[in-house]
Amino acid sequence: MGSSMVMIVISTMLAVMPCTCYAITNNNYRQQQLYPVVLVPGAGGNQLEARLTKEYKATSWLCNKFYPLKKDEGGWFRLWFEVGVLLAPLTECFAERMTLYYHEELDDYRNAPGVETRVSKFGSTESLLYLDPSLKKITAYMEPLVKSLQMLGYIDSQSLFGAPYDFRYGLASEGHPCEVGSTYLQNLKQLIENASNLNGGKPIILISHSLGGLYALQLLNRNPPEWRQQYVKHFIALSAPWGGTVDEMLTFASGNALGVPLVNPLLVRDEQRSSESNLWLMPRRNQFPSTTPLVITPDSSYSSFDISRFLEDIGFEEGVHPYETRILPLVEKLVAPGVPVTCIVGNGVPTAETLYYGEKGFDEQPEILYGDGDGTVNMVSLLALEDEWRDEENQKLKVIKLAGISHMDILKDDSALEHIIDVLSAINSGISTSSFVSHL
Ligand SMILES: *[C@@H]1O[C@H](CO)[C@@H](O)[C@H](O)[C@H]1NC(C)=O
């Protein structure tokens, strides 16, 4: 026995050691070891550009004169996000340019007349780092996460990719046209294939934040199982609102000032109501039972089963038809994709659970009863997959809860980033981090 065994051990060490040293000193080599990562941001999580055509008619002289102040040669300017729009008169101009319109004859959504929009740098992480690059500190979005990924050896556009999109648009159930959202899914699919090809055919790791998780799950399930097997190693969903949020009902009823005290929420309410993706995030029946009122007024109450009546009563009848035909069938089932999934979510942050409106109606901000969640998304929604996939024998799912981490902090907080990097490193080193749902 003795010496030959020792020889084997030594020769194995010799074979391994130069590689290890090389890996530490040479990024290219390390890169080859990594599964490429594709980042799918949440709503509002990437820059959006716009330009105005002759068809555009501003409702006020001020909008034409003072906004936007800067355009490039092609007439493009940053629509989302630009801090100037927080000033009241400009907020209205901004909102009218951001507004979507549902066209009944097309059964689809379109921009406001005369407003063209685009995302820039598709494939790169560039437009996800900061929402307003002139104010990096206060508008940082995925920058801290991207930095952590770079420390692992990831390099933008080589092993790390970003998939920005026009987050105002959503997806619709089968059989309904959905030009912008479906085009995005095609581009995302192409990006994933390109990312894999660039990295020796390795499958990619999808990392999404918030709404991006809903898009990513749709992408997986709208492609054949063989495609998923070949191209997607793992799906890490951060703070995904699988079952919608009560907060979204607040946005539809009274507007959401995005946490900026200067902004009057009623100025952005119509624009927020018009967003197809916002409608996608209404509380879902599977998580919010019919017996639980989510909104209570002096005359009535509304559960997740009463969303249509709620939309009518707040004065947004236009939303009822698209909600019933495009959204309800889309969210009926969360299909298990077979690809291993890890959900990382915050908990223990007060989150709107019941909204109480007084005599003055929906223009007045409600009293809010808070429950568990990440400050934006309710706990039942963050944990929906555990419940929904309980009996899925071939679905690996792991849910990691981070106490006190809010919906946005998950992308910034040091301990949250460490958890994300741990999960990613484990996948890269071949350690299985997921147990089967049935074993949880
Ligand atoms: C994928 O690669 C092809 C060929 O290089 C390129 O034409 C295409 O633009 C890329 N698409 C995406 C979405 O990265």
From TrEMBL:
Superkingdom of source: Eukaryota
One GO BP: lipid metabolic process
Signal peptide: 1-23
Stored Pfam families: LCAT
Keyword list, A-Z: Hydrolase, Signal
MF GO annotations: hydrolase activity; O-acyltransferase activity
Matches recorded under SUPFAM superfamilies: alpha/beta-Hydrolases
Protein name: Alpha/beta-Hydrolases superfamily protein
Organism: Artemisia annua (Sweet wormwood)
